[in-house]
Write a structure and sequence with these properties.
By secondary structure, this protein is an alpha/beta fold. It is 36% helix and 21% strand.
Length: 312
Amino acid sequence: MTEMRHSPRDGFGDALLTLGTKNKKVVVLSGDLKESTRCTAFAEAFPERYFDVGVAEQNMMGLASGLADEGFIPFVASFAVFNPGRNWDQLRVSVCYNKSNVKIIGSHAGFSAGPDGATHQGLEDIAITRVLPNLTVLAPADINEVKQATLRAAEVVGPVYIRFNRSEELVVTNPQEEFIIGQAKTIKTGRDIAVLTTGSMLGVAQKAVNKLSKKADIALIHHPTIKPIDRDSILDIARRVKIIITVEEAQLNGGFGSAVLEVLADKQPTRVIRVGVDDTFSQSGKPEELKDKYGIAQKDIESAILRAIIKK
């Protein structure tokens, strides 16, 4: 069967247009990245509700907070490294502290802005967002799930952060499947080892699990919500398997794997192997080359599974 690949950001653009048609309170702000973040269709359809603030991400977040206070539903879009990276202070005080109804969009997350180098690669955004009170943090897997996550985010009263990739990612979710914030998705059951993924790593993790399925009974569980994390799902799988593997396209320090460890440390201590970027800045290169170099390619997930098989 031929693999289907699409850029997840296109799902965001489609969802914006749908929301703009249904709800006149939806407005969009961009930091001079309208085309890159797929805000163009919304801007053309509803020019009076689109605001390009230029390269001024701090001002953009403050403006969004003010619009939310007036009853609008602002979607603030830029690269993840700038939004929330550059405007984290404004996100913390003007949005999260005030529980403002702002939706923060971090496009080009992970290595998907690869050729632009470390300054444009958003690998730290999970760590700096999940620490903020009142903020929901979402990491959908593909074009279908990004669209669903965006639509659901508009229904949440309060701040929501959504991270997704620029690069073409495997389409692995069903566009008709309901997206429930805070709920993990069991892709495959298993009794020996569990692979827990978030964001764009679902597709590649699924390929690794399928390849090694004859060597062990491997569960695959996808967490498109990082905060509030599905504690019940994590604890349930920890009671069923001997080893858990977490997979993310982000820094290990403070990332998704850390969130899983925090849940397990409280209630169900379990052996965990984490696959992610290990405390380093990247260099310029194609996204797939960088995943290979920094240890989050399919072969690295397979290696983690094989190590787990030996340890169990």
